[in-house]
């Protein structure tokens, strides 16, 4: 049996970042069920950093994460984690009210644009789809792989361990510690961090706890060729007011998505032809782009709690079981703040005001 102070289940962005933060306070072992970390949600994210995305709690976590992302610790990564991108929200004539409501939620975060100004920014927009716009200049591309590898590399430098192909098959309390049985051996720790993403409720069930109601949802994306006669590399992310599609430059092509959220079971999510077709149709209806071929397609899982707010805190129904799950579509950009909060709550630091909003106790009246 291999023992540590902290056992983290899951080596995606949530688990890697939490393990990195906890390794400053004790020994850490991360258990990952796949052959490589970040295979599911993390490795399939087209992350954009936006302080206006999500509910008020999520937005506060994003703002708290920005200093780390903008200025990571020395040696954390070799290139910037954030790169300028911008986000352009467009509305038809009948959707102007949605943009007004969006702007009112975050005063000062957007510049209001006329339709002509929006189309000058992204030349392929059709007038009927872009009667008005909002521009978020502070939205940034996140180098997801660099961030993830930075956390994992930092974990190793802090003497943390990563066990691959170590999916948890059984969990039990023994001698004041949690004992995890895996195909790669038996591991024990006083504190266990459930950062298993789409599988987090299943991990809780292994520990004898009722699930919180976390729901994995499939999100589909594809790469298409951009317009041949237009330099589109500096285009912002473009998303419609109803969030039914978006597109943005990606590695010399355009990434498109129908912004789908299809309930599914935990697993290796695959893009479905219908969702790809819907994405192509919506993008073509709003622009003069013609989708002649799909260069690449994929899908990932975004797992939401019932209130669409992440879960971060000890489960009050047992000892030493910490939840870090339900990050939905915000897990990459909130990872630094959630990791630091996780470390503070576990090591006895003063809890922050936001901790109550994230606690798993909110789901069972605790």
Instruction: Spell out the helices and strands N to C.
Output: EHEEHEEHEHEEHEEEEHEEEEEHEEEHH
Helical percentage: 25-40%
Total tally of structural domains: 2
CATH level-1 class of the largest domain: Alpha Beta
Using the alpha-carbon principal axes, give the shape. elongated
Radius of gyration: 21 Å
Strand content: 25-35%
Q: What value does the average pLDDT take?
A: 94
The end-to-end distance, rounded to whole angstroms, is 34 Å
Q: What attributes does this structure have?
A:
single chain, 366 residues, 2 domains, nine-stranded mixed β-sheet, eight-stranded mixed β-sheet, 9 helices
Summarize the structure.
This protein has 366 residues and is an alpha+beta fold.
Write the layout of secondary structure elements.
Elements: E1 2-9, H1 13-22, E2 28-31, E3 48-49, H2 56-70, E4 82-84, E5 87-91, H3 96-105, E6 111-114, H4 115-121, E7 132-136, E8 140-142, H5 144-157, E9 161-163, E10 168-174, E11 177-182, E12 185-194, H6 200-206, E13 215-224, E14 237-240, E15 246-250, E16 253-257, E17 262-263, H7 273-286, E18 296-304, E19 311-314, E20 321-325, H8 331-346, H9 355-358
Parallel strand pairs: 1-2, 1-12, 2-9, 5-14, 12-20
Antiparallel strand pairs: 3-8, 4-8, 5-7, 6-7, 10-11, 11-12, 13-16, 13-17, 13-18, 14-15, 15-16, 19-20
Helix pairs in contact: 1-5, 1-8, 2-8
């Amino acid at each position: 049996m291999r023992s540590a102070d902290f056992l983290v289940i899951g080596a995606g962005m949530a688990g890697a970042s939490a393990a990195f933060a906890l390794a400053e306070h004790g020994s850490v072992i991360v258990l990952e069920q796949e052959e490589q970390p970040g295979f599911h949600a993390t490795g399939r994210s087209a992350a954009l950093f936006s302080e206006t995305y999500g509910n008020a709690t999520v937005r506060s976590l994003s703002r708290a994460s920005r200093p780390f992302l903008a200025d990571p610790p020395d040696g954390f990564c070799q290139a910037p984690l954030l790169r300028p991108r911008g986000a352009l929200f467009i509305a038809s004539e009948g959707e102007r009210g949605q943009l007004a409501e969006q702007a009112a939620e975050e005063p000062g975060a957007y510049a209001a644009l006329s339709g002509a100004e929006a189309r000058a920014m992204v030349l392929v927009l059709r007038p009927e789809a872009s009667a008005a716009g909002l521009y978020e200049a502070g939205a940034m591309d996140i180098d997801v792989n660099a961030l993830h590898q930075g956390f994992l590399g930092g974990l190793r430098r802090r003497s943390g361990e990563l066990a691959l192909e170590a999916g948890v098959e059984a969990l039990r309390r023994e001698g004041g510690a949690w004992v995890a049985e895996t195909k790669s051996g038996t591991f024990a720790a006083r504190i266990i961090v459930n950062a298993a993403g789409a599988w987090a409720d299943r991990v809780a069930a292994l520990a004898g706890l009722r699930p919180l109601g976390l729901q994995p949802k499939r999100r589909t994306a594809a790469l298409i060729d951009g317009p041949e006669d237009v330099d589109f590399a500096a285009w912002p992310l473009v998303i419609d007011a109803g969030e039914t599609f978006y597109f943005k430059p990606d590695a010399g092509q355009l990434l498109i998505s129908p912004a789908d959220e299809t309930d599914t079971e935990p697993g290796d999510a695959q893009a479905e032809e219908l969702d790809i077709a819907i994405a192509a149709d919506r993008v073509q209806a709003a622009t003069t782009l013609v989708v002649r071929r799909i260069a690449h397609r994929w899908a990932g899982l975004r797992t939401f709690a019932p209130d669409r707010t992440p879960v971060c805190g000890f489960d009050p129904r047992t000892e030493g079981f910490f939840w870090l799950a339900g990050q939905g579509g915000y897990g990459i950009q909130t990872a630094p703040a959630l990791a630091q909060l996780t470390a503070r709550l576990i090591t006895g630091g003063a809890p922050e005001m936001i901790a109550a909003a994230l606690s798993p106790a909110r789901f069972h009246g605790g």
